[in-house]
Amino acid sequence: MTQSADLGYGDIRSKGSRIASSCLPQLYIVIDGSVARFVEVGRYSVMVSSEVNAALAWLHILAAVGWMGTAMFMVMVLVPSTADLQPSSRKDLLTKLLPRFSRYVTAFATLTLVAGILLSFAHVGDRLDSLSPTNPWGLSVTVGATLSLVAYVLALGVGLRSARKIVSILQKVGPDPQQSPPTEVASLQRRMRLTATTVMILLMLSLVFMVAAARLAEPLMG
User: Fold this and answer.
1) Among 6, 38, 101, 132, which residue has the least CB neighbours within 10 Å?
2) Is the pTM of the predicted complex or chain greater than 0.85?
3) Quick check: 67 and 206 in contact, CB under 8 A?
4) Contact 67, 203 (CB under 8 A)
């Protein structure tokens, strides 16, 4: 191990991969002061560094914060505020804001799920049985991930679809500033707010289970 500093990164990775493949299911080495873990997956070995895990964790957390923030904005600010606006002002606001809002929701929600999945597999390596709901950590991760997946389907399949319909309807409304929007818009706004409220609650529950999983994660690193 004292000779690691004299070897290049590629040499260390190559030698470590061969050792991990033939001798041990997991092998920890030190590269420039950081710990890297070789995880055997089938016939191959994948090196998962602590920096990669940290980057995935931060990406997952920041994306989840952004996703929950958009749901809160929809429930607490956007829909209540538009109810008091004049028809022309409401049309201008929604047609400009909802398309951009939809893009951010899609980006944050997708990043949350993708980073969470990658982080889970990087954490357990070849010990996929750790994700089983028969153990406390696996149960917490499974429940949290399921809640997030349901929230994702609701957000994109119901909430954003309603937002796109609202924009499509309002764009067809004439230029008369006193013309009231079709009654369908109010119905779609209520559906959008209800969906955002449900998504927000699901994400909060998911956060509870993921925090519990984080507290139970230390034994898996041993």
Assistant:
1) 6
2) no
3) no
4) yes
